[in-house]
Specification:
12 strands; alpha+beta; binds adenosine-5'-diphosphate; five-stranded antiparallel sheet; binds the ligand CSC[C@H]1O[C@H](OP(=O)(O)O)[C@H](O)[C@@H]1O; three-stranded antiparallel sheet; Phosphorylase Kinase, domain 1
Length: 416
């Protein structure tokens, strides 16, 4: 893979050929199989694996790789939505940067090919996408600890707290990601509050979309959060940290898909994961178990939200106490103020992300897969109610417990 190649979207045969040419992965005589498994909104994902008489199951084949290739447009919409191939560079560089800080929490990157806009990485097919795992009501006892470590280390060590300010600025430049940021700016901080053709809102809740476009107080808070997203180069974010970007088992967690990475406000990543856990909590209403079993799983998920924030905060404080590089950051009271602001931002962004997943372009399967239309409508209205509450209260929040209470009230109140 040294000579330069003209970009083209790979087909299955190309992917196999490319895999064969990567040194040290497959033997020259290996029988290889390949499938395109991409189920995301943007890219092609090929799994290439070796078959032998003992292993025919791709997930069990000891030799297997993933080739993720960017298309020159957004796959979910089609060629009418052109999109930079540079996102493959951003994704591979972000994975490598994260791998230096938390190697056990991201897939290994084997190769990045700029000409073909692709990254070859570790195949995690023996893990489950977390969204699917939560929809099956699996338990992940170590997740809060793992994601808190991911967040604390990646955010702290890429910020002016943990990184020399000159190096940080060079990093900001490397991760300028205007086109992918524009998607977020539109889909999260604009479209849900206007009659955008991008919106995708069930007819049953069109009244809610109208209310969003008329709610000036809410829009004011969204604008403040949008402003921070546009202007605050606080840390290198993953940029799209929802439960579909996390591979998981009860013992291990791997974060994938950082193509939206850029320097932005820390709360955007923390808010993303919180929002998606709350959306799943709300979706549990449709589960045909008895009320007590449902209540227990919802309580489990909300406790996970609490644990994520608390463990993030305690790890972040400890990194600060032991590794801060900015002398002035040791000023009395600054650490407390900083973390309160990160919490408030996280809550605001969580609310925005809940709203966009109900009325905006890209939804979540947790809610959309509810087949009973009345139950789905109730879940959507609950999600909007809680999302709006979080946005409205974000600048007053002092503790994660207020978020949990808002969720409990939202679920109990709207669905009563
Ligand atoms: N490293 C990996 N190992 C195994 N499967 C993967 C890997 N990366 C992606 N996939 C599969 O491809 C799907 C889409 O990947 P993702 O990175 O989310 O693409 P997109 O950027 O298009 O959203 C994932 O849901 C998962 O099923
Ligand atoms: C037109 S992109 C919509 C949506 O898709 C991205 O998610 P993913 O890459 O996980 O499929 C991102 O959340 C964007 O907002």
């Amino acid at each position: 893979m040294t000579k330069s190649t003209v970009y083209r979207p790979l087909c299955i045969e190309d992917a196999v050929q490319l895999a064969r040419n990567i040194e040290g992965v497959f033997s020259p005589t290996a029988s290889l199989r390949c499938e395109e498994i991409g189920d995301g909104n943007l890219n092609l994902v090929f799994r290439v694996y070796e078959i032998s008489k003992d292993t025919t199951d791709s997930a069990l084949s000891p030799r297997r790789i993933i080739i993720k290739q960017a298309l020159p447009y957004a796959k979910v919409v089609g060629e009418s939505w052109p999109l930079t191939l540079d996102r493959a560079r951003i994704e591979s560089q972000a994975l490598i940067a994260q791998g230096q800080l938390v190697p056990h929490l991201v897939p290994k990157v084997y190769l990045y090919n700029p000409d073909l806009a692709l990254t070859v990485m570790e195949d995690l097919s023996d893990y489950t996408i977390m969204r699917a795992g939560l929809m099956q009501r699996n338990l992940y006892p170590l997740f809060a600890e793992h994601i808190a470590e991911f967040l604390a280390k990646t955010l702290f060590f890429s910020s002016d707290l943990g990184l020399n300010q000159q190096d940080k600025k060079r990093n900001v430049e490397r991760f300028i990601n205007p086109e992918l940021c524009k998607i977020t700016e539109d889909l999260i901080f604009d479209d849900p509050y206007t009659a955008s053709p991008n919106n995708n809102c069930d007819a049953a809740i069109e009244d809610e979309l109208k209310k969003l476009s008329q709610d000036c107080g809410l829009q004011f808070e969204v604008m403040l959060l949008r402003e921070k997203f546009l202007t605050q180069a606080q840390a290198l974010l993953h940029g799209d940290l929802h439960t579909g970007s996390i591979f998981i088992t009860p013992e291990s967690t791997k974060v994938i898909d950082p193509e939206f990475a850029y320097y932005g406000p820390m709360g955007f990543d923390i808010g993303a994961i919180i929002a998606n856990l709350i959306l799943n909590t709300i979706s549990q209403e449709h589960w045909s178990a008895d009320e007590e079993t449902r209540r227990q799983y919802r309580a489990y998920l909300l406790q996970m939200v609490r644990d994520i924030w608390n463990q993030f905060e305690s790890r972040f404080r400890s990194l600060w106490d032991n590794h801060v590089v900015d002398r002035m950051a040791q000023t009395d009271g600054y650490q407390d103020t900083y973390l309160t602001r990160v919490l408030q931002d996280s809550v605001g962004y969580a609310g925005c992300k809940m709203i966009r997943r109900i009325v905006g372009l890209a939804h979540v399967a947790d809610i959309d897969s509810i087949s009973d239309l009345h139950v789905r409508e109730r879940a959507q209205r609950t999600a909007l109610f809680i999302g709006k509450s979080l946005v409205n209260m974000n600048r007053r929040i002092q503790s994660i417990d207020e978020v949990i209470t808002a969720c409990e009230h939202g679920i109990a109140g709207v669905q009563a």
